[in-house]
Amino acid sequence: MMRIDILTLLPTDLSNTFKSSILKRAEKKEKVKISFHNIRDYSKKKHKQVDDYPYGGGSGMVLMVEPIYECIKNLKSERVYDEIIYLTPDAEILNQKTANFLSIKKNIIVLCGHYKGIDQRIRDHLITREISIGDFVLSGGELAAAVFCDCIIRLIPGVLGDESSALTDSFQDNLISPPIYTRPAVFRSWKVPEVLLNGDKNEIENWRENKSIEITSKIRPDLLNK
Ligand code: ADE
User: Which CATH class is domain 2-153?
Assistant: First the structure.
């Protein structure tokens, strides 16, 4: 079973996301255990303060080192972590290869950023890997954490059944999946490609592969050069 500890200032925001869909099924099957930790609970300051003004001036508040340090220290005293991940837009972009790599880990910590950022010393001394979910900025790391966890958890062996196997996902082989169809064969004048109806397995396989390459070169040529 994989264990994911999520550090956030808004634990309730996220826990609802995990009550539905695949994540719930994965927890029921005991493939994953997700624990939320409120960073504020680890503040030693009056009024449970967790952020402060940036040294040198500037706008926005900065998440302080201590509460995050204390939370991570507490978790590390209970088990060994494979990765301590910080979700932030200024990082390596998440892709399927990284997701596959992380999906077989045992214990990971996911830190959601907030406000303007976090004290750099957290990144320098506590974080083992920084990941962005794309070249755009969200107002907090919580939605990024939901995306990240969904992407990883569905890859954990046994989470998806054969019928929805992750092996045929787009990107799994750096190609976008071919188009798929179901009945009826003709709707209005819109036809399903003939090759899919005649049942020749090799021909269908070839058609799908060619379509994948055609679509990938058209909309994501960068994938073909990987
Ligand atoms: N936090 C804010 N924006 C983000 C992004 N694009 N990826 C990961 N974490 C984020």
Answer: alpha beta
- Is any ligand 1 atom within 6 A of the Cβ of residue 92? no
pLDDT band per the 50, 70, 90 thresholds, residue 115: low
Most confident residue range from 8-22, 150-164, 165-179, 183-197:
183-197
Rounded to an integer, what distance in angstroms lies between the CA atom of residue 146 and that of residue 140?
Answer: 11
**Better pLDDT: 172 or 51:** 51
Residues with Cβ within 8 Å of 107's Cβ and at least 6 positions away in sequence, in order, are: 2, 3, 5, 79, 80, 81, 82
- Please indicate whether residue 146, judged by its CB atom, sits closer than 6 Å to ligand 1: no
Task: Specify the CATH number of the domain 170-224.
Answer: 1.10.1270.20
Over residues 156-167, the pLDDT tens digits come to 988 987 656 777
Domain ranges of the chain: 2-153, 170-224
Whether 145 lines ligand 1, by a CB cut-off of 6 Å, is: no
